[in-house]
Write a structure and sequence with these properties.
With 577 residues, the protein is of the alpha/beta class. It is 64% helix and 11% strand. The protein is built from 21 helices and 10 strands. The strands form 2 sheets. The chain has a 6-stranded mixed sheet with strand order 6-7-8-3-9-10, sandwiched between helices. Helix 3 packs antiparallel against helix 9. The longest helix has 53 residues. The N and C termini lie far apart (75 Å).
Length: 577
């Protein structure tokens, strides 16, 4: 229990940890305020027994009670405010911290499983951290502090009563430890099921078109329903496991209170305790464990808190790419690769490639599927770090640039375009957040998308669906190109940018690409002959190596992969229906 509490506080930022500690201090003051009623009761009882009840005594006792009640109310209000600010503030900070961490992870980390993990941590886990965990930790910690304070007072007041109370607390602690042990495995199952449920929801939504087209909606829906049912089962077991122990804990505390009452009565009867003290002990017996009882109910969730913190720490401790480079603005866009290697796990994808792309020229990468084209371009932009050799921009290793200053030099147009659930203007402005509306429109015109944007219901203020669901593939591509034009980076990477474009959109898209790449250094990955034939240099990749390099005419004169590629495309184009 103590280890979990320390782990939670260590996970929090210094600012919010201080707020939590202030809240705990207020909890101690609240405990003192609650205890003030017992001296007041003691004074009244002594006044009655000694027949010296006076107005001053009554007034003093009343003021003591009033001070305790008012101070407790003020302290509780301040404590609640601190806990809310610290809990929800820490939740927000950790989400931002995780988002910042993700910026510097290798792109190889991101796959369907990792997206489920990330979604679960940033939603379920952080929500539990900001809401449930804060309440559990504060109630548990305050219950411990209050109980320790009251035990100390009882031991000082009458050591015999104090020992009885201590015995009850120890029995309570044993039952609580057993409950947390049983909850540990169930809490792990709950966290795992939360992640699996998010993964299955994402898979179901993202793959809904394929599911329908293959008539597998029943199977896909069954998988999702099974995840939901399993999550409900584990949650029920977790609740039932806690409910078995919480009544037992409370029963021990009630019996301990009853024991204090009976023993106090016995001590009075045998003359070892005066009547006033005995009555006071009997009154306290029903209230002394209130904080501990509350703590027992919340402590059932401590294992969940521990796992939430662990999951947050796991993402934040993932090995990042080295980001300690310097801000640097290159004078040229010369790109050089020197004997680079890269592998996904044990599968080598890039094997000893060296090449040079002069500034202001265009380079095309062609080759069979899986030959390493996309990986090579992403290594140049440092989506991953090479495992051997070096990638240089303007003669400087890309690892020596700060991430932000390196990314300023690249714009990307991918085969699969991602658009945000936002206005068309803001999607274009994503490449330059402070761009004026005039600049947005100018970029859209260059990308040949101004006309279809103006035909939308709200023009540039039209909110498009998530990932541009309300637009055609060609329209999404042209908005992506407008975004890249807006950024105006000196190096453009086109990754199969025209692969999924309808013939009627191809002319506009090629004009948009021409506007984007004018006077730029261009790296393109393409299967279409017309896209690559005008490149200054064509690199033919095969099994992670450069099998051929040269211009279109030079490669056609060689007997190799490129000529077979061109012949196959020409033969396909000669077919008529």
């Amino acid at each position: 229990m103590i280890a979990t509490l320390n782990k939670f506080f260590a996970f929090c930022s210094a600012k919010h940890r201080r707020m939590f500690y202030e809240s705990l201090l207020l909890g101690v003051l609240i405990a003192f305020c609650e205890v003030l009623k017992y001296p007041a009761i003691n004074l009244i009882l002594h006044g009655f027994s000694e027949k010296r009840m006076t107005g001053k005594l009554i007034l003093f006792s009343f003021l003591l009670l009033l001070i305790g009640v008012l101070a407790e109310a003020a302290f509780r209000a301040k404590q609640a405010m601190l806990q809310c600010r610290a809990g929800y503030g820490e939740c927000a900070n950790k989400r931002i911290e995780i988002a910042e961490k993700l910026r510097f992870l290798p792109m190889g980390y991101f796959n369907r499983k990792s997206l489920g993990d990330i979604s679960s941590v940033t939603t379920n886990t952080m929500e539990q951290l900001g809401d449930v965990a804060t309440l559990v930790v504060m109630q548990t910690t305050q219950g411990l502090l209050n109980t320790a304070l009251i035990l100390l007072m009882l031991l000082l007041f009458d050591w015999r009563i104090g020992l009885i109370a201590l015995t009850g607390v120890l029995l309570f602690a044993l039952i609580n430890a057993r409950m947390q042990h049983e909850n540990e495995s169930l809490s792990k199952q709950k966290i795992a099921n939360d992640t699996k449920l998010v993964e299955n929801v994402l898979e179901y939504i993202q793959g809904i078109s394929e599911v329908k087209s293959y008539g597998l909606s029943g199977e896909s829906e069954r998988k999702l329903k099974d995840s939901i049912a399993e999550s409900a089962r584990v949650m029920t077991e977790l609740e039932l496991a806690s409910n078995r122990y919480v009544p037992l804990q409370n029963g021990v505390l009630k019996l301990t209170g009853l024991g204090i009452l009976l023993v106090s009565l016995r001590f009075y009867l045998d003359g070892s305790m005066d009547l006033i003290t005995a009555v006071l002990m009997m009154v306290m017996a029903f209230h002394v464990f209130a904080g501990l009882s509350s703590m027992g109910s919340y402590s059932a969730l401590l294992r969940m808190v521990d796992l939430c913190v662990t999951r947050g720490q796991e993402i934040l401790s993932l090995p990042s790419m080295e980001i300690g480079g310097e801000d640097y603005t290159p004078r040229t866009e010369d790109i050089e690769l020197e004997n680079i290697d890269f592998a996904y796990g044990s599968r080598k994808v890039i094997d000893g490639i060296s090449l040079h792309i002069p500034s202001g020229t265009s380079a095309a990468f062609v080759g069979p599927s899986g030959s390493g084209k996309t990986t090579l371009c992403r290594l140049i932009a440092r989506f991953w770090d090479v495992q051997r050799g070096a990638v240089r921009l303007d003669g400087k290793d890309v690892r020596d640039y700060s991430i932000d200053s390196l990314m300023e030099n690249f714009s990307f147009v991918f085969q699969s375009v991602y658009l945000f659930h936002d206005t068309v203007a803001n999607n274009i402005r994503f490449g330059k957040p402070d761009a004026t509306m005039e600049e947005v429109i100018a970029a859209a015109k260059q990308a040949c998308c101004h006309d279809f944007i103006m035909a939308l219901p709200e023009g540039y203020d039209t909110v498009i669906g998530e990932n541009g669901a309300s637009l055609s593939g060609g329209e999404r591509q042209r908005i992506s190109i407008a975004r890249a034009i807006m950024k105006d980076a000196p190096v453009i990477i086109l990754d199969e940018a025209t692969a999924n474009v309808d013939p009627e959109n191809e002319k506009e898209l090629m004009e948009a690409i021409a506007a984007l790449t004018k006077e730029k250094t261009v790296l393109m990955i393409a299967h279409r002959l017309k896209t690559v034939r005008d490149a200054n240099c064509i690199f033919v990749l095969d099994r992670g190596r450069i099998a051929q390099r040269g211009t279109h005419e030079e490669l056609l004169r060689e007997d190799g992969i490129y000529r077979r590629f061109v012949e196959a495309r020409s033969e396909a184009l000669s077919w008529r229906v």
